[in-house]
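The following record pairs a protein chain with its ligand, LLP.
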Amino acid sequence: MPSALDLFPAGSQVHGQGHLVIGGCDTVELAQRFGTPLYIFDEATLREQCRSFIGEFQRHHQDAQVLYASKAFICKALARVFGEEGLGLDAVSAGEVAIARSAGFPMERVYFHGNNKLREELELALDWGVGRVVVDNEHELGLLESVAQGRGRRQAILLRISPGVDPHTHQYTTTGLVDSKFGLPLVTGQAERALAHALASPHLDVLGLHFHLGSPITEVKPYLEALERVLPFAAGMTEKYGLSLRELSPGGGFPVAYTSSTQLPPLSEYAGAIAAALGEHCSRLGLGLPRLVVEPGRAMVGRAGVALYSVGAIKDIPGVRKYVSLDGGMGDNIRPALYGSRYEAVVANRRAEGQPEVVTLCGRFCESGDILIKDVSLPPLKAGDLIAMPAAGAYQLAMASNYNASLRPAVAMVTAGEARLIRRRETFEDLMNCDLG
Ligand code: LLP
């Protein structure tokens, strides 16, 4: 039976007095030193995840490149880790590229995504030397062509295809359907039209095709269905317009466990099946084997991150519900409110005593929907207790806001018993930085 501890970074332990220890650091000490809410990233888990992704995909497909989808969360320290581990970066705004660039991330390993890239962003991307622009639509194709032409450049691109495959995930994070704002639909002929245009342009070097189906995808099948559509299209385009498919990206979407009851296929299954399907289709269609580019975001950082909160007010409504208020909430984790995402939590500062009870962990934001976990069984809690929520590394800080003029939490990186602040807690000055009065 998997336990909640398995959801935390690798090697997490509970010490004698019941203190949760992450990356060799006692979370009670981390809370004292840095305050709460605190986000903790375990460097060893991050690096291990990089190595297993690269290892698994290269084991099945020699020429495989792993990009970190930085929308899951980016800061300089993380960019440095991913750069050192040899990953590339999927960025969806010039802002993400700017952060990576300031950390010395190699720009040639950056793939620039987005369904409405601004002209200024494309100009910056080219000036900074990003490796690939993943073109999403025909408008962008024209824009990019003119930006590249203005700079006397030939920009390497992938075209993002919308294959029309349902990944069976939350409606808000489904992207591969025909009815989606992302990508060039295959069935309508728009993908073909854009590809013909791009191939005819002296300013664009079409290296291949990309699709992303959704996030998270808890089964392998949707990837295979999409490859089954996209590769025959590529073969047709090779014959008709002389496309040379040098790169193929099935995007990201690889899941992580948020609760101990979650059953997920192992990474090796995704890597093996995707690589095998790519190989089979290419050989059947007479295509050379392209580089396989995958873009995991959540899977790279999800488990490495932990959210640490302090308990404050407790409201017990007899016969109705017990609300336990934490010092964070929807400002640092919008996912339960936005997607109904389910999490687990543990008490991090002491051994469990007393009969567990079902409570609702809520935040401190001025919304009734500011619930982090509804109906979770925990030992009796009191003000000052520490609550740790695992699988907190992806799409929490990245989607954090200053709602209620709250301050975004501090972020610490733990490495073999050492902790350092990689992002300080915001201050009131930060809140008013752009306020001109
Ligand atoms: N590539 C593309 C083109 C994407 O749009 C995404 C995610 C990824 C890669 C990375 O997907 P991942 O490996 O992280 O599943 N905020 C939502 C997730 C939105 C994902 C958007 N695109 C959440 O909190 O669940």
